[in-house]
Design brief:
221 residues; mainly alpha; Arc Repressor Mutant, subunit A; Four Helix Bundle (Hemerythrin (Met), subunit A); two-stranded antiparallel sheet; 11 helices; 72% helix; DNA-binding transcription factor activity; GntR_C; DNA-binding; transcription
Length: 221
């Protein structure tokens, strides 16, 4: 938890940070139980600290309490997904159209995320692929240069990762997005903001349709 400590977070915030990163990394999936005793050992924290961390994640919409089961990683509904994409359109499109111009450092972070996603696809590690693709979109929102938006969007990314985990065939679900991420990045490099915004809108529309179809199928089964 060294990064969190350097940022001056409380112990509960540190545990919540690590749990959130485990969700983004695809290590904690929708429906997984979050057993206090296991978390106490795994994160070397007190039971009260773990409980507070789980409460924080519950307020963020990442965990939920189920009677007779305890706290689990949240399962998102169709309405949740629609709300997520409304937020994504607002922030990502706004970042492209009105955010700071792309500079070398931001471009390099986007390129690193795309390259990592490509390497993951070559290894057929689709869980990692989804995480790296979302990291690219975090860098897009980063063009707004707003720490508050960055923090908020981290939670959105974590919730999106829970959507991915519902896919029965992650290869089929994830594979089409790499070329589109790369295309958006190239448009930003070339300074074509309007075209990049249109490409992002198309991307998010298609992604939302796919996510809603995925959840609808999962609900029927």
């Amino acid at each position: 938890m060294s990064i969190a400590k350097e940022n001056g977070l409380s112990l509960a915030d540190q545990v919540a940070h690590e749990l959130r990163e485990d969700i983004i990394g695809g290590r904690l999936l929708s429906g997984m139980p979050l057993v206090e005793s296991e978390l106490v050992r795994g994160y070397n924290a007190s039971r009260n600290t773990v409980r507070e961390a789980l409460h924080l994640l519950g307020r963020e919409g990442l965990t939920t309490y189920v009677r007779h089961k305890g706290v689990i990683v949240r399962r998102l509904t169709v309405d949740d997904v629609r709300d997520l994409f409304m937020v994504r359109r607002t922030l990502e499109s706004q970042a492209i159209l009105t955010g700071k111009l792309l500079v070398d450092s931001s471009s390099a972070r986007m390129a690193n995320a795309i390259e990592a996603a490509e390497l993951a696809s070559e290894r057929e590690d689709w869980r990692a692929f989804g995480t790296h693709s979302l990291r690219f979109h975090q860098q897009v929102v980063g063009l707004l240069h707003s720490p508050s938006f960055d923090e908020f969007f981290t939670n959105i990314v974590a919730q999106m990762r829970l959507v991915f985990s519902a896919a029965p065939d992650e290869a089929r679900y994830q594979a089409p997005w790499l070329a589109r991420d790369r295309h958006i990045h190239q448009l930003l490099i070339d300074g074509h903001r309007h075209e990049a915004g249109e490409a992002m809108d198309s991307y998010l529309n298609d992604s939302e349709h796919q996510a809603l179809d995925l959840l609808s199928r999962a609900t029927r089964h």
